Amino acid sequence: MRIRPADKGDLTELHRLERAAFGSHAYPAFFLRQAWDLWPSSLLVAIETSAIVGYVLAGRGDADEGWILSLAVAPQARRMGLGRRLTEAAIDVLASQGCRRVRLTVEPASAAQALYVSLGFVEVEREPDYFGPGQARVVMSRG
Ligand SMILES: CC(C)(COP(=O)(O)OP(=O)(O)OC[C@H]1O[C@@H](n2cnc3c(N)ncnc32)[C@H](O)[C@@H]1OP(=O)(O)O)[C@@H](O)C(=O)NCCC(=O)NCCS
Fold first, then answer.
1. Would 94 disulfide with which of 19, 59, 66, 72, CB 3.0-4.6 Å?
2. How confident is the model at residue 99 (pLDDT cuts 50, 70, 90)?
3. pTM value surpassing 0.70
4. Strand, helix or coil for residue 115
């Protein structure tokens, strides 16, 4: 398995993964296209035998802060350490761009929280109704 920056030709498959992972909360395809323009070096794909099996989208925000905006692993490739490797790779790219703090949004009941805690993220905020009425978000921060 290798991790590399996404090509424009990867975006259709990335959106398929995004929809499979997040359903009605998935980013639209045109947002991923725009993200590729904005953050080409921190939109990363994981490749296994020439197939995309996961991706992470991160971007530098204000000053020394970056955000991880999406992380998804194909169902058949989960629980093999790929989510961890993609998150670490995104943190490394953001660090190389001068980001000392990384933040992200996660759903309150998401299994991904354990992954982020194991990488040093802590909960810093809960925002009600973020994903819709009664659907809060948890903001986690590292650094
Ligand atoms: C969350 C997700 C990216 C994890 O990817 P993954 O490749 O399976 O993750 P890893 O194998 O690297 O697991 C890392 C840690 O995450 C936690 N974890 C991952 N999936 C878990 C699950 N289903 N239940 C409980 N803990 C889980 C564990 O702590 C795990 O460490 P361990 O295997 O040593 O116990 C993947 O499940 C996914 O794509 N889910 C749908 C989209 C999503 O929720 N994305 C995160 C948005 S914030």
1. 66
2. very high
3. yes
4. helix
